[in-house]
TrEMBL record:
It comes from the Bacteria. Residues 5-92 form the ABM domain. The keyword Oxidoreductase applies. The keyword Coiled coil does not apply. Pfam families: ABM. This is Antibiotic biosynthesis monooxygenase. Signal peptide: none annotated. GO terms for molecular function: monooxygenase activity. The lineage of its organism: Bacteria, Bacillati, Actinomycetota, Actinomycetes, Micrococcales. Keywords: Monooxygenase, Oxidoreductase.
Amino acid sequence: MTAPVDLTAVFVPNPGEFFRVKLALDIAIEQVLSEPGCLRYEITEESEDRIVLTEQWASEEDLANHAKGAAKQDLDESLSALLAEPVALTRG
């Protein structure tokens, strides 16, 4: 049995775009939670200048499938003009 994969994603909204970024994440969270292998996908910290999303996947394969999935692609498209910097993704 493989160990779960833990990720933290930090989103930094452009000035004035916090609520649009949060809305895009809220929509994605609903979709992603139904994906196979998704154990956790939730906002764990938020402020006007950053939003932290914590993820946990049952396996690397589930994470790879998520990365290619429609919900992730839709989120990336929704956020493309709303973020001040690229999403910072860390494992662990």
